[in-house]
Every structure is written in structure tokens, then in C-alpha cells.
Amino acid sequence: MKYRLTLVAAVTAVIGGWLIVMPGSVLTLALRMSEFGEATNTTDYSAILALGWLTLIVSLIAIGKMSDALLRRYSTRRYLLLIAMPILVIAALILMTASTPEALGAGWILIQVPAATIIATALATAGDSIPLGKRGLASGFLGAAPILSLLIGTALIRFLQSDINLALFFAPILGLVLTIPLSVIRIHPPRSSTPEISPPPSSTKRIPDRRWISAWLAFLIAGFLLSWSTSTANSYITLFVEFNSTLLEPDVASRATFLVLIATVTAIAGSVVGGLLSRSRSRSAVVFGSATAVVGIAMAIIVISPDPWGLTIGALILGIGFGFANGSEFALALSVNESSDALGKNLGTLTATTSVPYVLVPALATFLLQDSPATGLVTLFIWAALAAFIGATIAFTLMRTHVRSRT
What we know:
Blueprint: H1 2-34, H2 38-74, H3 79-97, H4 101-129, H5 135-159, H6 164-184, H7 209-244, H8 249-277, H9 281-304, H10 308-336, H11 343-355, H12 357-368, H13 373-404
Helix pairs in contact: 1-2, 1-4, 1-5, 1-6, 2-4, 2-11, 3-4, 3-6, 4-11, 5-8, 5-10, 7-8, 7-9, 7-10, 7-11, 7-12, 7-13, 8-10, 9-10, 9-13
């Protein structure tokens, strides 16, 4: 079917968009900054990283809104991709040739704009084009895309590890290549869905603004809290293993790598399965809420039992919960925004909201880890578990009520 071509193009574009951002955020930017000398490394790196995330967050919302306007006027969103591509190449060249921290920072901040353009446009295009009955499948693959981008970026960094400048350049260029299919294919409108999945005619009316606002805010808050929990695990699991596990020091690095691998693989599989289970509005809410609670359970297990078996089980459960939540998130977002004429802006807002913890958690961690890293990490992970449980409660009590009221 024609929608499958659109889905493949959208998924590869989302992978490409996150490939522009994730490798630099995780590794290459820090490695390049370290080459400028220790005197500027910590302060400048933190400032550049924070400004980059802030630029991405603002751009996701603004560009999503612009794509809605383009869709209404020209029946397509892809013109934004054509504008973003040359900007991406220029920014990548700046990153590769930067000889000062200021130049590197300018290139990193600039490259967030085309990255946000690609991510926001790809998500909105998928939302426009995927039939209602296939949104669960689309949600699963789109949820797995950011995780796949991290795997691809890690492999690319290992291949080019002898030259950080080339890694800073080729990761964005590969992201651009993955975006090309979405920029050239003709997007077809979705066909009518099957009768057993399609909503009755009365449900196509737009719900009152107050009810939509409360449902959308509930979803954003739940997504923010889930992201707070998962970003804590992503950023600090290695330090947690180092300071709080029962492992001997030589085993810390290998065990941390093993835990990340387990969580990543299960998250990718869980995302696809979670999407397939999210074939209806009410079911997507249940999957999302349950998966968020599972993430909280995983974080609690890691804190309570920081021995090798406890850490392994915690990482496995964390990957399953994170994957199922990612896989159902897009389907649930489309359900809430079924009658909205601002899909691009709303999906951009969702992505921006779930990116905010990647700025806030490190700031909190800096404060907590000053005196006692071991105690601070335990506190950080306890807060992450509580955030997931609160997010799950919100998803169950508010999201499910509002989504089911429209089925």
C-alpha cells in the first residue's frame, strides 16, 4: 500500500533527524571540546549543550506550527525539508572545521534548527498520511527510530573514532541522506480505515476546547515525567553502577555497557510491539500508562538491588517499559489530536516537552552529586521512579477517560 512508502520515509527521516543530535549530545561534542583544553571544557561544554537543547526545543514548536501553515496553503510540508538541507550542510561544515569553542558552539546551535525541522516535519507527515487502522504500527516504528539513531550514531563514532571532526560532520550528513526520501516522494492522503476500527460519525466532531486542553496537558505532563525517568537512566546508569553497585571496579565499564545494550535491544523490540498493541484510542492509553509504570518499577529495582542480577533485571524491564511507551506515544498523540488543525505544532510541542528533562536532569544532578555522589545518585534514581509512577497515574486517570470518551 502507498501509505507504507510514506511510513518508511517518515521513519528514516526521524532516524536521520535524531542522528544529527544524539551522537553529538552523547559523545562527539564532549570529545571535541576536550581537545581545546581543560580550562574551557566543562563550562563551555555545558553552555553549548544547554543552548543546543534549548534551540531544538523552541524550533520543534515553531517549525511544527510553520508546517501546519504550509500544509493548509500548499497541501504539503516537505518544502521545509528542502530549506533545512543546505542549512544542515553549512552547520556540519562549521562543526568539522571549528577551531575555537565559540565556532563549535555556533555550529552546534545552528544544526539544531534543521534537526528540529526534519523531526517535526516527519512526525506531522506520518500523522497526516497513515490510515487510522495502521497508526499503531506506525507508532511502533516511529517510537523505535530515536533508539535506532543512537545505535547507528554509536557505530559511526566507533568507525571514525580516530578523527572526531569527521564524526561531527558525517553523522549529520548521514542524517540528511536518510531524510531525502521524505523530501521527494509524493505523499498520499490516508484511505478510509476498516469499519471495526473507524470511529462512528458522531466521534469525528471536535471535542470542546476545555476537554481537549485538559487531555492534551495530561498527555504532555505524563510524557514529561516519563522522559524525566528515562533520561535519568540514560545519562547516569554508568555512574550509578560505578558508585552504588556491588561490582569490583574493573567490571564496572563492561557491566554498564552490557546494561545499556540490554535496555536498547529490548526497547527497540518493545516499541514495535507496543505500537502494534495500540490499535485503538483506549488501548493506546492503557499501553502508555502501563509502560510508564513499568519504567518506575525498573528504576525502583535498580535502586533496591544494585547487584549484578538486580541491575540486569532492572535494565531488561526498563527497556521493555521504555519501548512500549515509545511505541504507543505517537498513536496516543494522534488520538488526542484527531480533530486538531495544528497537528505539526502539537507533535512538535510533544517532542519538545519530552526533550526538556535532558536539560533539567543534568542541572539537578550537578547539585545532588556535589557532596556524596553515591547518595546523590540514589536520590536521583528514586525521584526518577516517582516521576514515572506519577506519570502513569496521570495517564490512567486522565488520558484514558478523555480518549475513551471519543471512541
